[in-house]
């Protein structure tokens, strides 16, 4: 049984804040401050360049990959950390396309995060071989899988509504049709029970700054199934993905297995923070996290619908059909969220009209949920949002 009182004590939370936005950026793990300071002073400061060997900086991407792998059902040696999620999407899609060379369709849905679609558009345009990006409604994905499709590229949890795709079911149908799969776990890793090996996923990618609490801009990760890892050709043949980086050969030779998916030099300071964040997961059951997040979200939905009738639920009502986030719609969604934030309830807004809230049991419970609903009720029923300062759009929403 996971001790959520213990995990809660591991995070810094400002006084007077109900934080329901861990689905966008996880809060600061208290140990991260110390870990980063130690890395900068004792390692970088004292060891200088010797830290690459003496402190194992070069192996951080693999070591952290294995720690994340335990949370997403990935065997040891199949996940590596580094670069950004967009880069990892590009790598995974490019490799999958090369493994299925006779087909020209990439299938996705309009609940996929736009950046994934942007990367696909850019890649397919560069290849200039008649590729097509086919984007359908989330409910139409299963029916759209056929023998014309090369790769199914899906974000498991819809970033807008929290709608959850059935990874195992869709992957099985894809494979039956000769289709490879790329799964984006940005809203899954650390929120859901994920079993990449059991689902037989081909590729998966994800970020670490949301539910994994790695910090703003924390590095991404990529998973390659063991049966593909030794034969995929990295489209981004970076120095760190070379078989022998310090031989300084002029010709590229892929590293072994997942190492070939490394690209740039590890972001050592950021990885120190992520390493500290991963400590919070020791002794945590993802099944317990999932059960509690559904309970918290269900409570939130029940209370909001009873007390804020102007808001319309945009997320699936059944907890088994959504991720760890809930969205409500309102024409004044942006102003509503700004009014909430001004009163200490932090969620976020997603265009055109969704106010979005995340439920992360590692550091929030029923008290925070009920407190947030109380503030939301006041904002809605007393039209606190109807002020000019709440309509001014910020750069980040």
From TrEMBL:
* Keyword terms, alphabetized: Hydrolase, Pyridine nucleotide biosynthesis, Pyridoxal phosphate
Q: Which InterPro entries match?
A: Kynureninase, PyrdxlP-dep_Trfase, PyrdxlP-dep_Trfase_major, PyrdxlP-dep_Trfase_small
Q: Which cofactor does it need?
A: pyridoxal 5'-phosphate
What Pfam families does this protein's entry cite?
KYNU_C
| Enzyme Commission no | 3.7.1.3
- Enumerate the catalysed reactions: L-kynurenine + H2O = anthranilate + L-alanine + H(+); 3-hydroxy-L-kynurenine + H2O = 3-hydroxyanthranilate + L-alanine + H(+)
What role does this protein play? Catalyzes the cleavage of L-kynurenine (L-Kyn) and L-3-hydroxykynurenine (L-3OHKyn) into anthranilic acid (AA) and 3-hydroxyanthranilic acid (3-OHAA), respectively.
Question: Can you tell me which family this protein belongs to?
Answer: Belongs to the kynureninase family.
Q: Which NCBIfam families match?
A: kynureninase
Record's protein name? Kynureninase
Say which species the protein is native to.
Answer: Mesorhizobium retamae
* Organism placement in taxonomy: Bacteria, Pseudomonadati, Pseudomonadota, Alphaproteobacteria, Hyphomicrobiales
Gene this chain is encoded by: kynU
């Amino acid at each position: 049984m996971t001790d959520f009182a213990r995990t809660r004590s591991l995070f810094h939370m400002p006084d007077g804040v109900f934080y329901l936005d861990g689905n966008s950026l996880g809060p600061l793990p208290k140990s991260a401050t110390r870990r980063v300071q130690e890395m900068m002073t004792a390692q970088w400061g004292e060891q200088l360049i010797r830290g690459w060997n003496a402190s194992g900086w070069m192996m951080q991407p693999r070591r952290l990959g294995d720690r994340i792998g335990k949370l997403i059902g990935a065997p040891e040696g199949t996940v590596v950390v580094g670069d950004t999620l967009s880069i990892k999407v590009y790598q995974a899609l490019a490799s999958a396309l090369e493994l299925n060379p006779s087909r020209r369709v990439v299938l996705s849905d309009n609940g996929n995060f736009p950046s994934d679609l942007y990367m696909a558009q850019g890649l397919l345009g560069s290849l200039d071989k008649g590729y097509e990006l086919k984007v359908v409604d989330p409910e139409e994905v299963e029916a759209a899988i056929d023998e014309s499709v090369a790769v199914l590229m899906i974000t498991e949890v819809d970033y807008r509504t929290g709608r959850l795709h059935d990874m195992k079911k869709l992957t099985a149908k894809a494979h039956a049709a000769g289709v490879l799969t790329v799964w984006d776990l940005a809203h899954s890793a650390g929120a859901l029970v994920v079993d990449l090996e059991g689902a037989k996923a081909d590729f998966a990618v994800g970020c670490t700054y949301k539910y994994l609490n790695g910090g703003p801009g924390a590095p991404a990760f990529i998973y390659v199934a063991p049966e593909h890892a030794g034969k995929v050709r990295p489209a981004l043949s970076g120095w760190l993905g070379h078989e022998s980086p310090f031989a300084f050969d002029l010709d590229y030779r892929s590293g072994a297995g997942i190492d070939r998916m490394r690209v740039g030099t590890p972001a050592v300071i950021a990885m120190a923070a992520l390493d500290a964040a991963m400590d919070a997961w020791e002794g945590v059951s993802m099944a317990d996290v999932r059960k509690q997040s559904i309970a918290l979200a269900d409570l939130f939905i029940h209370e909001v619908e009873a007390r804020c009738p102007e808001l319309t639920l945009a997320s699936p009502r059944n907890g088994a059909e959504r991720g760890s986030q809930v969205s409500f719609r309102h024409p004044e969604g942006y102003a509503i969220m700004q009014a909430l934030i001004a009163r200490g309830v932090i969620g976020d807004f997603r265009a055109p009209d969704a106010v979005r809230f995340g439920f992360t049991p590692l550091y929030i419970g029923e008290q925070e949920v009920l407190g947030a609903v109380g503030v939301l009720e006041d904002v809605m029923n007393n039209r606190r949002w109807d002020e000019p300062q709440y309509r001014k759009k910020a750069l980040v929403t």
